[in-house]
Amino acid sequence: MADDKPFTIESFYNFVKEKKLMGGKCRSCGKLLVPPKPLCPECFSSDLTWKEIPKNGKLRTYTVIHVAPKQFQAFTPYAVGIVELEDGAQLPGMIRNVTLDKVQVGMQLTVDFDAEQTTHEWPHWPRYYFKPTHPE
Ligand SMILES: [Zn+2]
Fold this sequence. Notes:
Elements lengths: L8 H9 L4 E5 L5 E2 L14 E5 L3 E10 L12 E8 L4 E6 L12 E6 L14 E5 L4
Antiparallel strand pairs: 1-2, 1-3, 4-5, 4-7, 5-6, 7-8
The protein binds zinc ion.
């Protein structure tokens, strides 16, 4: 079962590889931990379970990156935002498939996954990104 995976960012990216977005859910207070952490920051419980998190949400805030780390230089300039998912969890990520002047706070975004590894730099983690839910 999924619950035997440690509640770490590595596990989170292993799920992303399977095209799943998973967070840790605290069994004691119900808080959803995205990305997962081994300890609930609300009640300090380590009694956690894996829960699939929604792939749709709303853009809360974003910033445009002009100077990127080496592995993302091919994407510059690009937008990185914090997206509030349908269950209230907030997930940071790159916003793609939209021109930068169309990126707006409040827009509906959906998580998608890179089919191929886009970087040869460490860490070799698969990537997810956000794209508009209703492309024009
Ligand atoms: Zn808790």
